[in-house]
Amino acid sequence: AGVFYVDAFGLIGDGVPPVQPTVTHFEPVGSNQVHLEWTGTGQVVIEHSSSLTAPNWQVVVGPISGNVAELALPANAGFFRVQAATTALTSKQP
Q: Residue 24 domain-assigned?
């Protein structure tokens, strides 16, 4: 028997909770882009929030496969995170 986990939307997963990626490189590219690299396997989404005090994570890229992405910086300052796609699409936890 596998292990399943439940969120507000019901039963999720294939028996194994997703392993969260770890960002290994974050670098500005020019004045309006950023280069991200991370470890991990599977699809991810890159999210942005303008605040960490009251985060409102919004998907800016994804789901994507691979371990590298370049994206345009949003007009407002903020924070990025890389999440396993299954986690990000089923939960908005900080």
A: yes
